[in-house]
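ESCALATION

Customer reports they have been waiting on this structure for their group meeting. Please prioritize. Original submission:
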Amino acid sequence: MPISDEKQNFISLLKEKISNNLTDIESRDDLSIDEKSKRIIHIFSAACAVSAVQPIPFADIFFLIPLQVYMVERLAVVRDVPISALDQMTDFATMIVMLILAQQVALGLYKTGLPFFAGFTTIPLVYALTYGIAKVLDSLFVKRAKAAAY
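Update from on-call: job pushed to the front of the queue and completed.
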């Protein structure tokens, strides 16, 4: 069954929005590096919050961690920090893993303890946790980029 022109236009517009604001944001000249970083953090925080609404306890790890890993990759690209620099941050990586595990435990217990109310309150919880992780990583990438410039 062929796709209608209206659907094709919608798909093209969606692809363009995703490219401009996420997958190819580093090539935009109309935004500063800080604005690019802010957009990435907000987009991924919102995506993680929405994906965490699913009702299965402890299944969030399969949705959130891939999104958060991709967020880290996008932030590193925008800040022009080579991914290989992440290998030098084993102590920081340990802290991030602990934050992600804490997030998963909090969400799992939250959904188990408050199964009907948790769907509404999970959104701000996950948004805030993802946002916090991203801001810490972004500040680290800013420091790494400055150190690499010297």
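Sent to customer with the following note: DSSP finds five helices and no strands in the chain.
Escalation resolved.
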